């Protein structure tokens, strides 16, 4: 190489921190990017990291001392053409993100009403059901349902008590072959009301290998 030729050699990758508008700036994401990518490609990668939109985002470059160095505003330029170094920060300013922040319903104050005030209103579903004696406001219907439920529970209990642990049985499920099994459990469970019978299949079929 001739003495009058000068070559500047820099690393191919750069490690930077990333923040975005509409979020807490103190929350940084650290990522490594190749200096040979275009700013347009960089925006595509930042979409996945910030939830922004490449077509609306603008990227600000900050130094390690948190001083604004400039903006990465040329989509066709290479990242390495900007004075970006390890430890600097990309701040994504995006109207798409800001709009979503404003539309976040979780931050909208909710309208609340006491049960007493709600019961006094005449334009609610509750008042309609009450006037027309429907659902839980129909005493006869509720009594009939409770009686049916009681009879079903009694029948289930009687059937369960008629069986014994160790008894042989067959399990019939629509669309599946008949399976032979041994009763291993009879009683109540925590996850659902009623009487349950647990069986062990002769062959390793079903959940937990039978």
Automatic annotation (TrEMBL):
Record domain CAP-Gly: where: 187-210
GO molecular function term, any single one: alpha-tubulin binding
GO cellular component: cell cortex; microtubule plus-end; nucleus
Entry-linked InterPro entries: CAP-Gly_dom_sf (IPR036859), CAP-Gly_domain (IPR000938), TBCB_Ubl (IPR045172), Ubiquitin-like_dom (IPR000626), Ubiquitin-like_domsf (IPR029071)
Listed SUPFAM superfamilies: Cap-Gly domain, Ubiquitin-like
Native source species: Diploptera punctata (Pacific beetle cockroach)
Annotated keywords: Chaperone, Coiled coil, Cytoplasm
Protein name: CAP-Gly domain-containing protein
Family, as annotated: Belongs to the TBCB family.
GO biological process: cytoplasmic microtubule organization; post-chaperonin tubulin folding pathway; tubulin complex assembly
Superkingdom, natural source: Eukaryota
Gene3D superfamilies the record matches: CAP Gly-rich-like domain, Phosphatidylinositol 3-kinase Catalytic Subunit, Chain A, domain 1
Residues annotated as signal peptide: none
Coiled coil stretches, renumbered: 136-163
Subcellular location: Cytoplasm
